[in-house]
Amino acid sequence: MKKQVMEFASGNEMASIAIKQIGYDLMGYYPITPSTQIAENLDLMRAGGETDLIMVAAEGEHSAAGICYGASVAGGRAVNATSANGLLYALEQFPVQSGTRYPMVMNVACRTVSGPLSIKGDHSDIMYMLNTGWPILFAATAQQVYDFNIIALKLAETVRLPVVVAYDGFFTSHQKGRCYRFAKEEAVKEFVGRKKEPYPFLDLEHPVTVGSYMNEADLINNRYQLHLAMEEARNLLPSLFASYAEISGRAYDMAKGCYCEDAEEILVVLGSSFDTASEAVEEMRGAGKKVGIATVHSLRPFPGEELFSVIGHAKNILVADRQDSYGGCGGNLSLEVRAMLQRFGSRAKVRSLVYGLGGKEFFKEDAKEMLRLAKESGEDFAYYGVTAGETKKEEGPLFPPITRESTCLGARQNLNAVTAMPGRIAPGHGACPGCGIPVNLNLLLRGIEDPVVLLFQTGCAMIVTTAYPRTAFRVPYLHNLFQNGAATLSGIAEICYRKQEKGEIPKGDIIFIMVSGDGGMDIGMGSALGTALRGHRLLIFEYDNGGYMNTGYQLSYSTPLGAKSSTSHVGKNQYGKTFFQKDMVKIMAATGIPYAATVAESHPVDFMKKAAKAAHYAKTTGTAYVKAISACPLNWNDKPMTERRVIEAAVNSCYFPLYEIENGITRLSYDPEKAGKKIPVADWLSMMGRTKHLLKEEYREVREALQQETDRRYQELKKQLSETFPTR
User: Which region, left, alpha or beta, applies to residue 255 given φ > 0 means left and ψ of -120 to 50 means alpha?
Assistant: First the structure.
C-alpha cells in the first residue's frame, strides 16, 4: 500500500484533489450548481501555485464539452464537471467524443433537471448519459469520488473511451466526511500511467482526419467497435478495482450487497442512499428480519451478472429510483434490474418506486418502509413520498388587475408622477440587502406605460421572486434557461401577434421583455443575437452584476479585469480575472437593431426615458436592448447602503458610460468630463472588496491596463458620436 493522509472533505473537494494529483493538462468548464465547487477549488489551487492546470471558463456547457474534446484530440488530458441542465445542454457533444474514441473524465454532481427549476439532487440528469457510449462509475461517498476519479482515467485511456464519475448532488458533493488520499502525487501518477496516443493528432508528418462522414456500412462497424470497447471496460473494471485495492486498501466491486446472502427482501438503490439504507437493514436484521441492501458502482457497463449474484436468490426485490423514465413504469435503474433478472431466469417479485426527487430527504425509516413494501402485494410501480394537495375554494386575485389606464400616466420624465404607476412586481423580495436587481427592474417598468409580458432567464432575479407556491409578478411571467431565453420570448411574441391578427385575442400594444443577468448574456448570447438578427419585436434587458452571482460568484465575461471571484482567485500565480469585460451593447448594436442603450440607477430619469424609448422600438420596429449596471454587495464585497455611490463611481470613471445607439446614431447621455466629475477607474475599484487588491503596487500593470482600456473604449465611443451605424 502507498502512504495516505486523512482529509475531512466533501465529494467535490475530493474530486479536486484527485484531479490535481493526476496532473491534468486542461479543464474546460462552466459553472452550475452543485458541481461548480470543483472548478472553484482547482482555481484556488492554481492561484496558490499547487497546479499548472489550464482552466478555460467557457460561455456555456456545450462549449466546455467542446473545449475538452479538442484538448483530448490534441493529446492532452482533459477533465470537466457539470450537472443537470448543463449536462443536457452539452449532450450532443458526448456521443461525438465516444464515437471517435478520445478518453477524458467528467464529474457529474447529479441534480434535478428543469423545469420547474430545482437545484437539489436526484438522478434525472445522469440517466440521459446511458446511451452516449461513456462508461459511468457511480460513487456513493466522498471517498469513492476520489478513488473513482483515479480509476476512471486509467479505464478511459486503456479502452479509449471518455468516462463519467457520477455522485449525488449536495448529499455527496457538499457533505464532508473523513476520507483518505495518497500522500504523494507520484502514487497516483504511477497507477494511472503515461498517456499513449496511437494516432497523434499533432504529428504533422502523419496527418489524420477525425470524425469523417460515414455511410451505413461503416457506421454500424464503428458502433460495433464502440460496443466492443464497452465490453472491454466490463472485463477490465474488476482487475482495475483489484489493482487499486493493492495500493489503497479499499476494495470495490461493480455491484455490492450488504446482508444479502440469505435475504428474502432486498432493496436496490443508487448513490448516497446506500449507506442510509444499510443502517436500516442492520437494525432490521437485529430484529430478525431477513433483509438486505444492494447497489451498483457501474451504471455503464451495467453489471448484470455481478448484481444477479448478489440479489438473484431473493424472493422480493424493490428497486428505488431517484428519477422516472416516464411511461416506462419505473426509473432506469428499475428497468435495468428487471431486464437483468429476466435474462438470468429469476422468479423474484420486483417492485419499483420513484423516490427522493428534487433532493427530498431519505431516512432510515424510509428504507424500512420500502423493505416492508417489497413483500406486500399490490401495484409493482409507484411513487413514494407524494403528498396530497388540499382542495380549496377558488379565490380571486390577490391584487387588482393592472389596467392600461393605470399605467398610461404620460409622465415618464417626472419622478414624482411615476410613483403613481402600479408595480408590476409585488412589494418585497428575497434578494440580498442592497441588491440592484429590484431597483433596476422597477425603474425599467416605471418607464414603460404599455402592458408587459415578462420572461426571466435563470438567475438571482428569477430565484428570489418565484419560490413556489408564491410569485411576485402581477403580469404574465415565464422562466426559461440561460441559453434559450430570447428565442423562447420570440416564440411568445410571434404567437401573440398572430392571435391578434386573427382576432383571437384583443389587439393592443404589449411589450415583451426578457430579463437577463448573472452571466446570462454569456451562455445566452447566441440566442439573443439570433433573436436580434431576426428582428423580433421585443426588449432584452440585462442587469449586469459582473458575475455568475446565483451560483456563488464565478467569473463572467462581464467581470472586470483583475476582479477576484470563486473561479478567478488572487494568489502568487494569479491576480483575478485575466481578460477585459465584454462590451455587450456594441455587440448587440452590431446586429443592426433599432435601439441599444446603457442605464444606471444613479441616473433614474435617464433610465426611465431610455426604457420608454426601448419599449417604443420593441413594439413597432424590432429588438431593443438595454443594459444596466447592477449592484451585488454580497459578491462585490461592499456595503449595501453605499451601492448607489458605487454605481455612480462606475459611471463617472467611464467604466460604464451612459449612452444610446438609436437607429444607428450614437448619443452620449452623460459626460463625466463635462460635468467635472470624471474619476480614475482606481477610485471605483477601491470601493469594492473584489477589486481592492488591484490598488497594490504589485498589480499596477493590471490596474493601468484596465484604465487604458477604459479610456480607449470611452474615446472610441466619443468618436462614434458623429458616425452612424447601418440599421435595417
Answer: beta
On the CB side of 643, CA atoms within 13 Å amount to 22
Angle at 288 between CA 287 and CA 294, to 5 degrees: 95
How far, rounded to the nearest angstrom, does the alpha carbon of residue 130 sit from its chain's CA centroid?
20
Q: Are 380 and 348 in contact (CB under 8 A)?
A: no
Which of the 8 DSSP states describes residue 580?
A: P
Percent of the chain with pLDDT over 90: 88
DSSP H or E stretch at residue 294: strand 291-296
Cα–Cα nearest to 175, from 314, 359, 331, 303: 359
Here the cell at position 179 is 476520507
C-alpha cell at 134: 461513456
Q: What cell does 91 get?
A: 449532450
pLDDT in tens, 666-706: 999 999 999 999 999 999 999 999 999 999 999 999 999 99
Model pTM score = 0.92
| Alpha carbons 340 and 229: distance in angstroms, whole number | 21
Which of 624, 615, 628 is CA-nearest to residue 408? 615
Helix (H) / strand (E) containing 381:
strand 381-383
**DSSP-assigned states of every residue in 187-218:** HHHHHH-----SS-TT-TTS----S----HHH
Q: In whole angstroms, what is the distance from residue 596 CA to residue 618 CA?
A: 11
Q: How far is CA 23 from CA 80, 186, 200, in A?
A: 14, 10, 20
Q: Which amino acid is at 544?
A: D
Poorest-pLDDT segment among 163-172, 374-383, 422-431, 448-457: 422-431
Instruction: For residue range 176-235, list pLDDT tens digits in order.
Output: 999 999 999 999 999 999 999 999 999 999 999 999 999 989 999 999 999 999 999 999
Nine-digit cell string for 25:
493538462
**DSSP three-state, residue 64:** helix
- Give percent of the chain above pLDDT 70: 98
Nearest to 559 by CA among 59, 82, 87: 59
Instruction: Please say if the pLDDT value at position 122 is more than 90.
Output: yes
pLDDT in tens, 417-466: 777 788 888 887 789 999 999 999 999 999 999 999 999 999 999 999 99
Return the DSSP state at 382: E
Handedness of CA 170, 172, 177, 178 (dihedral sign): negative
Nearest alpha-carbon partner for 477 in 125, 116, 157, 206 = 116
Q: What is the pLDDT of residues 572-609, one digit of tens each?
A: 999 999 999 999 999 999 999 999 999 999 999 999 99
**Residues 699 and 691: beta-carbon distance below 8 Å:** no
DSSP annotation string for 495-557:
HHHHHHHHTSS-----EEEEEEETTHHHHTHHHHHHHHHHT-S-EEEEEE-SSBGGGT-B--T
Among residues 668, 671, 662, 658, the alpha carbon closest in space to that of 721 is found at 668
Contact criterion met (CB below 8 Å) for 456 and 482: no
**Average model confidence (pLDDT) for the chain?**
94
- Residues in contact with 196: Cβ distance below 8 Å, sequence separation at least 6, in sequence order: 157
The region, left, alpha or beta by phi > 0 then psi within -120 to 50, assigned to residue 393 is: beta
Instruction: Return the C-alpha cell found at 206.
Output: 502523419
Cell reading at 301:
457497463
Q: How many residues does the chain have?
A: 728
Return the number of other C-beta atoms located less than 10 Å from residue 226's C-beta. 17
Per residue in 557-571, is it b (16+ CB within 10 Å) or e — as a string? bbbbbbbbbbbbbbb
Q: Alpha-carbon distance 554 to 543, whole Å?
A: 16
